[in-house]
Specification:
CRISPR-associated endoribonuclease Cas6, two-stranded antiparallel ribbon, alpha+beta
Length: about 35
């Protein structure tokens, strides 16, 4: 994992308050924006 992905995971992970706001989903080891 790259630091950017780790930060993103912490800020936009499942169960995170920002998850719905950013509309992001976790797919295996990759992150996508809706």
């Amino acid at each position: 994992g790259e630091p950017e992905l780790i930060k993103f995971a912490l800020n936009c992970g499942i169960g995170s308050k920002n998850a719905q706001g950013f509309g992001c989903i976790v797919l295996k080891d990759r992150w996508k924006f809706n």
